[in-house]
Structures are given as structure tokens and as C-alpha cells.
Design goal:
Elements lengths: L2 E3 L20 E3 L4 E3 L19 E3 L7 H12 L13 H10 L4
The structure holds FE3-S4 cluster (F3S).
Length: 103
């Protein structure tokens, strides 16, 4: 079992999640993060940290291409260990996601 980063992370990249991950399983590009399923220990510490609800358990999205996408991208991208500044417009995107009921 592992946790998965969803599309809600795109254009936000708040990175509060990485500050609580005990195994440094987050990898990222300029737009969003992904979780390495081979490292994630399923502790769930990151879930309440994300302001846009972008982290879910894989058992809740079985069959979703997001599961394979996280594994593939995590293998290709660098580890993100420290909190960084959110992307420009992240707060506005968060507000939109909330107003659309997607958080
Ligand atoms: Fe993305 Fe949420 Fe982490 S927006 S970078 S999953 S805190």
C-alpha cells in the first residue's frame, strides 16, 4: 500500500507534505509532486498537511492511472526533502478547488 499525489497538486506545489515525511518519498518536477510507492510507509502524516487535499490512499483510487503515474514519475524525478515556496497562483487555485468541492 502507498499514498498517491493527485492532480490537485498541479499548479499548487505547497510542499507542506515533504516537511513531515519520515522517509523522503516525495519527488517532483516544476509543477507538482509524486510519491515513490517503494519508499512510502503509509504513515499518513502528509495527508492533513496538504492545503488542497492532494494526497490519498491508493486503496481509495484502485484502478486509477494516478497510481502508475506516481510510481513512474517518482523514479524519474529528484527527491524533494524541504518545504519550498508554493507556485505563483497557488492560493487562487486552492480557493477554486475548494469552491468546486474538489478539496
Ligand atoms: Fe502538492 Fe499538497 Fe504536497 S499541493 S506539494 S501534495 S502539500
Amino acid at each position: 500500500m502507498t499514498h498517491i499525489v493527485t492532480e490537485n497538486c498541479s499548479s499548487c506545489r505547497f510542499t507542506d507534505c515533504v516537511s513531515v515525511c519520515p522517509v523522503n518519498c516525495f519527488h517532483g518536477d516544476a509543477d507538482r509532486l509524486y510519491i515513490d510507492p517503494d519508499l512510502c510507509i503509509d504513515c499518513g502524516a502528509c495527508i492533513p498537511k496538504c492545503p488542497v487535499g492532494a494526497i490519498v490512499e491508493d486503496i481509495d483510487i484502485l484502478g486509477s492511472p494516478l497510481i502508475e503515474l506516481n510510481a513512474e514519475q517518482a523514479a524519474l524525478l529528484p527527491v524533494i526533502k524541504a518545504k519550498q515556496s508554493p507556485l505563483p497562483g497557488a492560493d487562487a487555485r486552492r480557493d477554486t478547488l475548494i469552491s468546486e468541492g474538489l478539496v
